[in-house]
Write a structure and sequence with these properties.
- The protein is mostly beta strands.
- It is 12% helix and 46% strand.
- It contains 1 helix and 12 strands; from the N terminus they run H-E-E-E-E-E-E-E-E-E-E-E-E.
- The strands form 4 sheets. The chain has a 4-stranded mixed sheet with strand order 4-1-7-8, with no helix packed on it.
């Protein structure tokens, strides 16, 4: 009987710990402003990374699901380029891209869809502000026609 009570208490404490575990999302940062300055990135007022340069794509990091604030500050500067709030859903992956829009850098939140099939996949993102709709090709096949800010679905590809 004592063992049964101990087991029940252990199961209840594990269930309580699981209920208290925060729901997490993941994000990664991309600097996609050609000729733009290196930036220090702030997440909810705390510096998340320093000197993020053009073309840099950082690995995924976890954060609690919910509303978060991202700011971009030119490294060594004092005026933020963009200050933007975004909602992150638990269990989802996002790319937070610094892009050019209307002459000023802004944050663009992109939901990273996980492929339904195993193997290699390619996905296109149109990040050229002011450019017309673009056709994206993969292995000679048209992947998608996208307008600025649009993202294609993951498309399976085979190694050649």
């Amino acid at each position: 009987m004592l063992r049964l009570l101990a087991l029940a208490a252990l199961l209840c404490s594990q269930a309580a710990m699981a209920a208290e575990a925060p729901a997490l999302a993941r994000y990664r940062l991309l600097h996609a402003v050609p000729g733009g300055p290196e930036v220090d990135v702030y997440l909810d007022g705390e510096q998340a990374t320093a000197r993020l340069g053009y073309g840099s794509l950082l690995p995924y990091r976890s954060l609690r699901a919910g509303l978060h604030n991202f700011k971009a500050l030119p490294s060594g500067g004092s005026t933020f380029l963009d200050d933007r709030d975004a909602i992150f859903e638990a269990g989802r992956d996002y790319t937070i891209a610094l892009v050019q829009s209307g002459g000023a850098p802004i944050w663009l939140r992109i939901l990273d869809r996980r492929p339904e099939q195993p193997g290699g996949h390619v996905r296109a993102v149109h990040l050229a502000a002011g450019a017309p709709n673009l056709d994206f090709l993969a292995a000679g096949q048209k992947l998608a026609t996208l307008a600025y800010g649009q993202v294609s679905r993951p498309t399976p590809v085979t190694a050649s």
